[in-house]
Amino acid sequence: MISTNSGRILHTFSSRVWNHQHRCLPVFSASCRCRHVRLASTDHGSRDGRNETNNTNTFLASALGATCVVGATLYWKLRHDKLQAAELDYEPGSIRPNLPTYSLADVSKHKTKDAGIWVTYKNGVYDITEYVTGHPGGSKILLAAGGSMEPYWNMYGVHKQSGILQIAEQYRIGNIVEKPAGSEGLSADNPYANDPPRSPILIPSSRAPFNAEPPALLLAENFLTPNDLFYIRNHLPVPDIDPRKYSLEVQGSQKTAVLDLSGLRKGFKKKSVAAVVMCAGNRRSEMVRIKSVKGLNWGAAAIGNANWAGATLNDVLKHSGIDLEGTEKKHLVFEGMDKGPEGSVYGASIPIEMARSLKDEIVIAYEMNGEPIPRDHGYPVRVIIPGIVGARQVKWLNKIYLSDEESECHWQRRDYKGFNSSIDWHNVDFDSSVAIMQLPVISAICDPPEGTELEEGSDEVTLRGYAWSGGGRGIVRVDVSADGGKTWQNAELKPNGQSPYRAWAWTLWEATIPIPEGKAGDVELVCKAVDVSYNVQPDSVEGIWNLRGVLSNAWHRIKVTVPPSSG
Amino acid sequence: MISTNSGRILHTFSSRVWNHQHRCLPVFSASCRCRHVRLASTDHGSRDGRNETNNTNTFLASALGATCVVGATLYWKLRHDKLQAAELDYEPGSIRPNLPTYSLADVSKHKTKDAGIWVTYKNGVYDITEYVTGHPGGSKILLAAGGSMEPYWNMYGVHKQSGILQIAEQYRIGNIVEKPAGSEGLSADNPYANDPPRSPILIPSSRAPFNAEPPALLLAENFLTPNDLFYIRNHLPVPDIDPRKYSLEVQGSQKTAVLDLSGLRKGFKKKSVAAVVMCAGNRRSEMVRIKSVKGLNWGAAAIGNANWAGATLNDVLKHSGIDLEGTEKKHLVFEGMDKGPEGSVYGASIPIEMARSLKDEIVIAYEMNGEPIPRDHGYPVRVIIPGIVGARQVKWLNKIYLSDEESECHWQRRDYKGFNSSIDWHNVDFDSSVAIMQLPVISAICDPPEGTELEEGSDEVTLRGYAWSGGGRGIVRVDVSADGGKTWQNAELKPNGQSPYRAWAWTLWEATIPIPEGKAGDVELVCKAVDVSYNVQPDSVEGIWNLRGVLSNAWHRIKVTVPPSSG
């Protein structure tokens, strides 16, 4: 079994694996509250290991309790007697002169079971192949395979207790002295030299401008995506804005209002909205497999769901003397402070009808998940327009005004539009299509990841993922299949607390489904969602392929493998 | 060539066909204004027949001018000399003692070129095979094949000039004395005995209750579907309501307002909205081909677009003291006057959020296309809720009230819901799904009809059809293909004059696309639409099959044939 969050798997850990394994096991976990409850119930199945299991559970319960807030967790499963035996006379992660030294390149070659699975912590190199090989349930640790565990440990800080670190040293095989490459290598005149530091958990698809997504596996863990895990989609260098000097210009027909950050925070009622921001190119990599496209090679994690807070558009416009109902202008334009080399700024606009109908939902936001918006996400202020593509939700917001015309920005007029699959760069006419606003219904399987090897003889598999639709259309059903789409089962939808007609947040889902009997080898897992307007995802990527690789919302298909049963 | 509304085809008529054909030719036409202009231009290509063509054009121009208002037209193409020769000494359609008598059953066997194509007018039987065989462009006349021309002539009354009727007699082969069967056969105690008369153009899928759709071929002719052509979906016998006694009860928390028809007409501002009404089961017949479903075997014409006029919901509720914004009730319920055998009435409800956001768009309607709503469509009053399924747009509206619960009507709770394709009658749980409200994006090819034989050597084909999406989402693109979906071309969208975010009406479209070179035999024509939220239609019927055969919005595929070129 791949998933770590079902009672059945934990039972396996307690009663079988745990007693045959004499080393401490690193593993990621999720859905802590659930797991905590289920752990207790697994005790009944582990007579011969009761003491160990109880101790383990006590540890887990404490670690998990502390990390439930952020959701996903990396922890060390401990055996009490082993822990006592493992006391060290050196700092975990410090250089050990009696061990060989490896390069980062050496470590990065060790990502698979065949090559061995290595990870690093500070100056330590660890071989965790034995654990991973024996326990497919620990798949999440593979996220760190061939690289450093630190980003995960920094994120879920509870694990750096010295006892746990000492245990980790039992897997120690060598030293590393190199530092990972970062943006510090950029010369001072490089426009991206002043970009902020980012979590190394993120997987970059481009470094300048910086664009990166988290491992999809971690997405379905949290209804609210942690800021450090939220995908980053920058078009230009990140502005470095002094909050004391920040101002937002709102141009009315009679006057131009200028609001500073303090004015935005204190002058208006604070409105919070849990809303998805998604890149139009999310899941583009599936289109690339059909035929090449222009664009970042996004997996299924160029999407996140956060709680955004700030002033409503309506309040800000009213304060600035702009009358959305009375105006004859056709578009509301937003401009950012991120500038291209020739000085032009990023901008976007929305149709006036959309501004009107969403005026109390659109947020001029200064908070993301209760914190100041991080620099990569628009510090200090961005606009959140729920239900539409990320590209219009201008970051580093500098100016708002009405116009007869759409934003003239490249990304409004010459990008982020849909075309049929017979249009390519030789015959495209961007004026013939409309700028993407509301997005169509989409879903994805986050867990298990593509290519996962399930446990030998698995007869079922637990899938978890997200589903979302633009325009506030709530998700009413997610169908999952373990036979490539021949038969379907409804997934369990986790309530998001929003009205189905104003559902700006995503819906997380989970399903445990049988694997077709006698099946060994590849299993194709599929999911597809239905929104409240009964829109469905299209069956194939071929039918929606487009030259920019946007709007990639076909049924999400991944392959996992079931080893043939040896019994 | 199949289509009759392109310049190229008319040119063919003028310069080639017309001169080789010594009989008068019946044919349907459409898009009159367009054709009128193009006709004039075809004169240049018909030197040897200029006189005839000009006379023909003069006649056509006059007939077409008179019928442009209604759109689709049946007319006789005339040859001037033939017309003069054809004067008769009897009434067209009267019994001719020297000709054989046929039964309706005899006539109904003559629908194909192989069997001969017969039609009737009054007591006359006509064999029009020669015309149809020689001229595939006349395909619309096949709608009347095996039956009476009268419904079409009654609809487009201009054709019953005595001259035209005299010409028709040249095709006369016999007499008919039977009357077509109608509902007059029902005994007085049959609950359907008092149903209204319907246009025989409609193709019934059930007679009690009466359900019928027009030939899809006629749908794309008119932005506003003529009342007589509008599909009928009745669940119960049609109430026979005396307008002087009609009343609408609107139950507020404090009082119940009772409005009569005159009060509705005179007491409120009249609001008009062009809006689609579509049955959830439109295009069900495509699902039936995969696996049987429960439901009427609708083709692609269980949809219509009409101009509805009446009082807004908001005005009626305000008048009745109902506060949509302030209420804590969750649903707005509508009840009709159509009763089941056990006395229960048809009803439906919509979520309160929907009532709020559409309060100025929902119409308590008493007019359909400028006329009192016909009995089959809810006379004297129905509710029009733009953007949602027809089933909630209660006809013969009797009562409106707020409720904590959805309508308890069978059709709200135990019907008109979506399920995945692995749910069938043995495992369905209607409570597990949500009542269909807003509909997903759909489109269909109306012209040419399935199975049409194109002209020998055709290298292109003209397609026409409709596209629409629920929730007011306008259509931004229709893709058409003549190679089964391998390559695509954009269709030309006819503007519907509505905002893309409040697009309640459909979008008619047209495209002329090349037939793959050297292609003979079956050609698969396909269309698919994209709405402003970039929702697309699913590729396959298999992926959306459901036990009730609703929401059938896969790519619309039809087969036509191209005879092998004899040259």
Explain this structure to me?
The structure is a homodimer of 567-residue chains. By secondary structure, chain A is α+β, with helices and mostly antiparallel strands. Chain A folds into three domains: 170 residues, Flavocytochrome B2, Chain A, domain 1 (Roll), CATH 3.10.120.10; 186 residues, Oxidoreductase, molybdopterin-binding domain (Sulfite Oxidase, Chain A, domain 2, Alpha-Beta Complex), CATH 3.90.420.10; 121 residues, Immunoglobulin-like (Sandwich), CATH 2.60.40. Helix content of chain A is 19%, strand content 28%. The first copy, chain A, contains 14 helices and 29 strands. In chain A, strands 3, 4, 5, 6, 7 and 8 form a six-stranded mixed β-sheet that branches. A five-stranded mixed β-sheet of chain A has the order 13-12-21-16-17. The interface between A and B is large, with 47 and 47 residues.
Structural class of chain A: alpha+beta
Q: How many domain units of chain A? A: 3
Ends of chain A: how far apart? 16 Å
Number of strands of chain A: 29
The greatest inter-chain interface is formed by: A-B, 47 and 47 residues
Please tell me the CATH architecture of the largest domain in chain A by its name: Alpha-Beta Complex
Give the CATH H-level superfamily of the largest domain in chain A: Oxidoreductase, molybdopterin-binding domain
Helix content percent band of chain A: 10-25%
CATH topology call of the largest domain in chain A: Sulfite Oxidase, Chain A, domain 2
Most strands sheet of chain A: 6 strands, mixed
Number of H/I helices of chain A: 14
Overall body shape of chain A = globular
CATH class placement of the largest domain in chain A: Alpha Beta
